[in-house]
Amino acid sequence: MISIIKPINPRIHCVGDGRGLRDVFMNDNKINNVVYANELKGIIEFVPHPLKAKRNGEIYTRKLRGVVTVEFQQSNGVHHGAS
């Protein structure tokens, strides 16, 4: 059996893709709570604060367009979560 796995595009970032924490910038401004970023198309989708829900129960998100840059956060070995 041959398994064909589509390679991950390194310029597309989303929550849960397993590539670690990142800082996302739109036109050199840091954007928080980003759920999707496409550096090639210049699109960011993020969850504004405070969190809002639509009538159908989905989380309200906004899209921005511009120059997108993504920087991976450096891991210093410090654990900041519950064990």
> What's the number of structural domains?
1
Q: Output the helix-strand order.
A: EEEEEEE
**What is the averaged pLDDT score?**
86
Whole-angstrom Rg: 15 Å
Q: Are there runs of 5+ residues with pLDDT below 50, and where?
A: none
Number of helices: 0
The class by helix and strand makeup works out as mainly beta
Question: Strand count, sense and closure of the main sheet?
Answer: 4 strands, antiparallel
Strands of the widest sheet, in order across it, are 1-4-5-6
Rounded to the nearest angstrom, the distance between the terminal CA atoms is 40 Å
Helix content: under 10%
Question: Can you characterise this structure?
Answer:
The chain is mainly beta and about 80 residues long. It has one domain (about 10-70). It has strands at about 10-15, 20-25, 30, 35-40, 45, 60-65, 70. The protein starts with 11 loop residues before the first strand and ends in an 11-residue tail after the last strand. The mean pLDDT is about 85.
Task: Looking at this protein, list some descriptive labels.
4-stranded antiparallel sheet; 83 residues; mainly beta
Concise account of the structure shown:
The protein is an all-beta fold and 83 residues long. It contains no helices and 7 strands.
Describe the protein's topology.
Layout: E1 12-14, E2 22-26, E3 29-31, E4 34-38, E5 43-46, E6 62-65, E7 68-72
